[in-house]
């Protein structure tokens, strides 16, 4: 088989093989997967039951109604470290070099990484939605809007995936993953995920307003029919638009940077 | 015959450090060439350029008639690479690794499975094929790594220090495998730090130092240049040195070296088996009591001493 159709078919089959490899990882080593799936659930319980009583969100009756869309968005950000770790491990173990010395489609490594990570994130989202339903969170705007909200969440994940790939290619040291693991938290707190930016000091609130996590979290709140953060800033009013724009900007920046970085491995 | 591996004036710098500094090599099809050199000589850099992982800063490299930068995809279809460190997925089992690579070589699901079975059998991994690679010993990993690079039966195989860290049995296995591959027509470029290994496997040795080839030729030619095997004798009593020297001069040709402090004598020999027998008899007749009699093969250290006038340690310092 030859020509562009044949090449595209091989690229697809290669990507499927690489995705299958990640799924085999999950089967052989289920513990990290289980922890990744349950960690956001734990966070919801922790924040909802332990701290929720003390947190007052303007205009929100039930804190869980406010918290869950925020946690959905934050869970998407947790994925960065998983992507990064996978990229770094492959480079360190020489697997990246083996792939590069083989006649496979070079796009397959990245496409396979994307589909495996998106699959695991979709699964994580599903678990968290189940958890939300169990603690009383509901969506109120019908299925179509709910599906759109999930789509925006996964779009954010796709954008952060490219960030993860870029950071993974940039750093040779698994220690860098720990740094990212820690930095995700201030990023999460400095957004509308847990509390309304309106309750923050002015300049912090402004940062939280502009945080891509806030845009996606608020867009999800709007589409699920959950109480928003009640701000009247431009960002708060256009969160659905920004939940599309922000991820596209991130992809536009980090996808080409990653591709360039990958090509530079041969320098 | 058309060379299968060819390099001319290869240069590669890491910052200001030259890893390759005018590297030339020609390996004819169906032969084994050993790149012999100490740590940091540039062996891995050369192998990575030939296997399309690294672009040279200057010079030209061809594998199987294809330029490694301009026609990298074609080169990749024809080569197998066993890197200095095993490049396998630790979480997957040995079989899963081989099946994954087989699918990426486009053998199809069933083809990849059959090929994995064959290779596991051939490399003695059939029983442990289902276990995670993280439970494998160093030797098992190395074998799996080699198996992974033979999935397509490559026409050119690169082996970067394939026996470093293996026990004698593991080394012998790798050597057997290389010989089998050469019998089927594969061209092999291997790197090693051991003259002995190059001697066993290669028809051609290129000695690499500081990024360039400082000597090249058949093992015999190279060994002849550095003096080949030597007989070494340590006598019990220092005053016997003169008598022993006379006895030894009669059976071994060439210049005698005497180290009085260690009560040691050494001389080059042509036929190692004959020389040992003759020397022991001559010493016995002369009534010299010896602490040690041995034939010593030249080591990489000797090669270096001879070719560069400095030992490996000095050249590294
Ligand atoms: N990624 C790198 N960055 C900087 N310098 C490098 C890099 N890789 C190799 N070098 C340098 O290039 C030179 C040649 O290295 P190379 O790895 O090719 O040697 P080698 O012969 O394979 O050594 P060894 O026997 O230790 O494997 C060394 O001086 C090394 O320090
Ligand atoms: Mg090396």
Overview of this structure, please?
The complex is a heterodimer of chains A (267) and B (317). Helices cover 78% and strands 0% of the residues of chain A. Chain A starts with a helix and ends with a helix. Chain A is elongated. The longest helix of chain A is centred in the first third of the chain and has 30 residues, at 63-92. Chain A is built from eleven helices and no strands. Chain A has one domain (12-263). Helix content of chain B is 39%, strand content 27%. Chain B has twelve helices and 14 strands. In chain B, the strands form three sheets. In chain B, strands 6-7-8-3-9-10 form a six-stranded mixed beta sheet, sandwiched between helices. A four-stranded antiparallel beta sheet of chain B has the order 2-1-4-5, with helices on one face. In chain B, helix 3 (94-104) crosses helix 4, helix 8 (219-226) crosses helix 11 (300-308) and helix 9 packs across helix 10. The longest helix of chain B is centred in the middle third of the chain and has 16 residues, at 168-183. The A-B interface holds A 10, 13-14, 17-18, 20-21, 24-25, 28-29, 93-95, 97-104, 108, 265-267 and B 51-55, 73, 76-77, 79, 81, 83, 85-93, 96, 100-101, 103-106, 132, 148.
DSSP strand content of chain B: 25-35%
Determine the strand fraction of chain A and express it as a percent band: under 5%
Q: Give, in order, the helices and strands of chain A.
A: HHHHHHHHHHH
In total, the number of domains of chain B comes to 2
Shape of chain A: elongated
What CATH architecture of the largest domain in chain B would you give? 3-Layer(aba) Sandwich
Strand order of the largest sheet of chain B: 6-7-8-3-9-10
N-to-C CA distance of chain A: 32 Å
Major protein interface? A-B, 26 and 29 residues
In round numbers, the mean pLDDT of chain A is 88
Number of helices of chain A: 11
Helix/strand-derived category of chain B reads alpha/beta
Helix content of chain B: 25-40%
Number of strands of chain B: 14
Beginning-to-end CA distance, first to last residue of chain B: 41 Å
**What is Rg of chain A?**
19 Å
Fourth CATH level, the homologous superfamily of the largest domain in chain B? P-loop containing nucleotide triphosphate hydrolases
> What is the residue-averaged pLDDT of chain B?
88
Largest sheet of chain B: 6 strands, mixed
- Poorly predicted residue ranges of chain A: none
